[in-house]
């Protein structure tokens, strides 16, 4: 059943809010990394010049890793997932569905990849819609019917259209930079260099040293929690956008039901790529960590919202 007309506006409003929040969070992340670099630089060298050095070092590390990930991150993800590009003749139904959803979303046709794994799952990657790629597993093609496949592809096209694929890469860069700086500082302590510097730099350096130590320990955890929280919100938004493309919430709901009940394990997935998939492929971990460390919202809740749409209900605000 088509989604109520008033819900389309709701989807667009949520997309606009999502983009504003994304920009705000990136700015907060950048400010946090900058402060982290400044404090660690001061604690390490013991004067303002050292703080500027730390800040520049953080900026350089973020720039290098950012450029590498921005231009080659999608290829690295696909290679790590053992995905290979396929032609229309190898999977005509999949190609037709992807083409339909690209037209419905007003987006360029993405490149299509397949992962030779019997577990049903899929993800999208790339820095923008012009460089987008969609990868699905062999199990997804074999276990889902056409309407269900359409729902999954629409969900992934929603990630492309909402620029979630770019955002995921940017946040990944910032989280990675935070971890890199923290790890560098803690390693200097391990080898005794930071302690030696801290002995002769005065009281201010000692205070900065303690602040840097706390930030270095807590920053990676904080960054990771924020990344996972954002990932969960974007899954709800992608589900809602997918329904606006297909006008068929049942297809996506049935697909999520099949994927969640499937017992196959996606062998190529890992902690670095798990958040990209439509459903968390690391199921055992998801069961252990249904709270803060879950990369996805509860799939039962996503299905419940989609079932409400089937009967004309208004989708609830994602938590």
From TrEMBL:
Its cofactor is Zn(2+). The active site is at residue 156. Keywords: Cell membrane, Hydrolase, Membrane, Metal-binding, Metalloprotease, Protease, Transmembrane, Transmembrane helix, Zinc. Zn(2+) binds at residues 155, 159, 235. It is a multi-pass membrane protein. Binds 1 zinc ion per subunit. Residues 94-309 form the Peptidase M48 domain. It is found in: Cell membrane. GO terms for cellular component: plasma membrane. The chain crosses the membrane at residues 22-45, 51-72, 167-186, 206-226. One of its GO terms (molecular function) is zinc ion binding. Its EC number is 3.4.24.-. GO terms for biological process: proteolysis. It is an enzyme of class 3 (hydrolase). Its main location: membrane. It holds the Pfam family Peptidase_M48. PANTHER family: PROTEASE HTPX. Belongs to the peptidase M48B family. This is Protease HtpX homolog. It comes from Rubrobacter xylanophilus. The gene is htpX.
């Amino acid at each position: 059943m088509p989604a109520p007309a008033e819900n389309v506006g709701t989807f667009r409003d949520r997309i606009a809010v999502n983009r504003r929040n994304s920009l705000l969070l990136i700015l907060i992340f950048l400010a946090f990394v900058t402060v982290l670099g400044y404090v660690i630089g001061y604690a390490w060298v013991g004067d303002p010049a050292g703080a500027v050095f730390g800040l520049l070092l953080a900026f350089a590390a973020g720039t290098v890793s950012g450029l590498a990930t921005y231009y080659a991150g999608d290829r690295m993800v696909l290679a790590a997932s053992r995905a290979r590009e396929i032609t229309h003749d190898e999977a005509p139904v999949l190609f037709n569905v992807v083409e339909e959803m690209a037209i419905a979303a007003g987006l360029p046709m993405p490149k299509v990849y397949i992962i030779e794994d019997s577990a049903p799952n899929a993800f999208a990657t790339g820095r923008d819609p012009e460089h987008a790629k969609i990868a699905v597993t062999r199990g997804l093609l074999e276990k889902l019917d056409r309407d269900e496949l359409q729902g999954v592809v629409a969900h992934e096209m929603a990630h492309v259209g909402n620029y979630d694929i770019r955002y995921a890469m940017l946040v990944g860069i910032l989280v990675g930079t935070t971890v890199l700086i923290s790890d560098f500082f803690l390693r200097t302590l391990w080898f005794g260099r930071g302690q030696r510097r801290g002995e002769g730099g005065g009281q201010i350096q000692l205070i900065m040293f303690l602040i840097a130590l706390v930030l270095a320990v807590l920053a990676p955890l904080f960054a990771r929690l924020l990344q996972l929280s954002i990932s969960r919100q974007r899954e709800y938004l992608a589900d809602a956008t997918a329904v606006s493309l297909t006008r068929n919430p049942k297809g996506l709901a049935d697909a999520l039901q099949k994927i969640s009940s499937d017992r196959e394990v996606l062998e190529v997935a890992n902690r670095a790529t798990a958040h990209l998939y439509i459903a968390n492929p690391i199921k055992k971990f998801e069961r252990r960590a249904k709270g803060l460390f879950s990369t996805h919202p509860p799939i039962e809740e996503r299905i419940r919202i989609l079932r409400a749409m089937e009967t004309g209900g208004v989708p609830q605000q994602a938590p």
